[in-house]
Design a protein that fits this description.
The complex is a heterodimer of chains A (200) and B (130). Chain A is 72% helix and 0% strand. Chain A is mainly alpha-helical and 200 residues long. Chain A folds into 2 domains: 59 residues; 126 residues, no CATH class. Chain B contains 5 helices and 5 strands; from the N terminus they run βαβαβαβαβα. In chain B, α1 links the parallel β1 and β2. In chain B, α2 runs parallel beside α3. Classes of the chains: A mainly alpha (200), B alpha/beta (130). At the A-B interface, α3, α4, α5 and α6 of A face α1, α4 and β5 of B.
Amino acid sequence: MTTPDIERTRLANMLHDALEALERGDEDGWRQQVDALANARARSLVNGLGRLARELSQALDTLPPTPAEGNGLDDACARLDHVVEMTEQATHRTLDLIDDSRALVARLKEGPLDETQITTVESLRENLREMALAQSHQDLGGQIIRRVAGIVRGVHEGFGALGLPPKEDNQRGNGPSVSGLDRNTVGQSDADDLLSHLGL
Amino acid sequence: MNKNIRILIVDDFSTMRRIVKNLLSDLGFNNTVEAEDGHSALAVLRQDVVELVVTDWNMPGMTGIELLCAIRADPKFRALPVLMVTAEAKREQIIEAAQNGVNGYIIKPFTAQTLEEKLGKIFERLGSAA
């Protein structure tokens, strides 16, 4: 016999005994049997709870361990802040070199130049201007990194935990739009259309 | 066009302030002053004679849109042109800026040509208003 069969037979016996005791007017006897039945039911409930607790504990063991010291999220945010600082320094260094080069180009322009040289110097000047503009990546990337760090900090502090993605805040600003992620954003020409529509 | 006008550049990223300053100087505008958010921009406006504000939107402290509202709320600065140069690109935001009296709106990343064009438009309008 399997375990459930044994259990079933045991319960059936207790019910029979309880019924017999009741029929022959044995008050104490049938109360005893009913109590035994109730205990049997409670035992299966306790067993069930015990099993759930074991399963929960096993499931928790499969989760990544919580760092014993410090905490991972603060660390992640500090690293992101560091990236913003590093790119800021590198960008200033590049802009310094671009400034120096612009001064050099200005000096070149003073000398007697032939037609080709004038075109070359002009191209150099344009390239330097575009190089400076391309450094905008530091601002744009930096804003996105700050936003991500903000999300991580928000989760950490328990604000709207698991409530990702974060609520949009048009008043404070959302940073650069990321294609495929941000909706309802426009480019310069759409913005121009919108503004002229508004009378600007 | 008077290229000697004093221009206030407001952005929390020092690199972007530098880039805008460079571009302006390329266009012949060399008289610039900088601030890193709305509060420090207002402080500059109160003690300096500024004729154009170029501001970012998303800044810690006081944002660009709050700065714009503060400028428009002050009778002294009501006519001061404000050019927004920002990565904020939602339709609602552009409408909000327009409703609060912005004079131009440039979305980052932008080109030198866009900046020149928008500045030209602002000065053109100032000229016709004068």
